[in-house]
Design goal:
The chain is of the alpha/beta class. The protein has ten helices and 19 strands. Helices cover about 25% and strands about 30% of the residues.
Length: about 350
Amino acid sequence: MKRYLILEDGSSFPGKGLGATIISTGELAIQTSNFGYQEALTDPTNAGKILVFTTPIIGNSGINAIDYESINPTVKGIIANDVGFNVSDNENFEELDSFLKEKNIPAIFDVDTRALVHRLMNEGTIKASIMDTDDEHAFDQIKALVLPKNKSATVSTKNAYAAPNVGKSVAVIDLGLKHSMLRELSLRQVNVTVLPYDATPIDIENLRPDGIIISNGPGKPKEALKYVNDTLDHFYGKYPILGIGLGFLVLSDYLNFELVDLPQEFNGINYPVIEQNSNKIWQTSMDIDQLVLPDSVQINMNQEYFDLHTELLAGFAINEDKVIATAFNPEGAPGSLDAIAIFDQFLNMME
């Protein structure tokens, strides 16, 4: 079935339909990962996005339930150059087309993604729709659409839940966390309680945690900080705090660091950062559209991580305040495990 990706600037990209046959609209985002398409499309950080995969083919390794980053994906669609079918006779693997239909996600393949990415490289946020036509009415619909705000509220857990273990106790404020983060904490025997995005300081205090994590997730830091600000006022400097992704932006905003919009959103696994103290370069996974202007930082830091593309601050540690924050995802998934030591540093802060 022929379908169209239409952009609010009036351009149209035809292709073949895959997955759900619904009409869908969202924010177009370039996904530069060479692998890990399943983790990308189930990552809550990508809520509300139509992902354009730059890798030549996706779906060729199927879908495995163990690699979900969330049970119910919240992406609005995916765009690909080519898709693999009939990937395996193993009953543990599901074909991408079947998975997309099951999760009600539309997709288009046989699209010239190189031309599409070239078109988007110098664009900011751009709205797009997956539709059956590319007539004038379709373009009027996309122009009239208002993208939703406060996405974290839509993907965060509605009720607190436990991921029990026998070690240190950590309260996780869920702004759109990934399963892989919980997996890494479990491997370190951390006893986790996951709380909604709007958890109060009393909710956290009642758990008597050894530390607090502000998770990654979708949306803007100003929106999330409205809910997390009281928690930071209450616990900053008292308990060790780790911020990841959106959590990094929230902490940076709270500390009055200047956030800079990136020329093009980082959405993939190939973003090198340099660890200042050791000059080690880590290949990292990021889903973020802002980083910190180094000159705006007026606090003495024990560790800084800089993005090599922009020379902006992509992570920091303040031992005196017991705070670590990273724009990148230390758990990878997809991506390398170069930054996995961030979790160990956080655990050391709780000793």
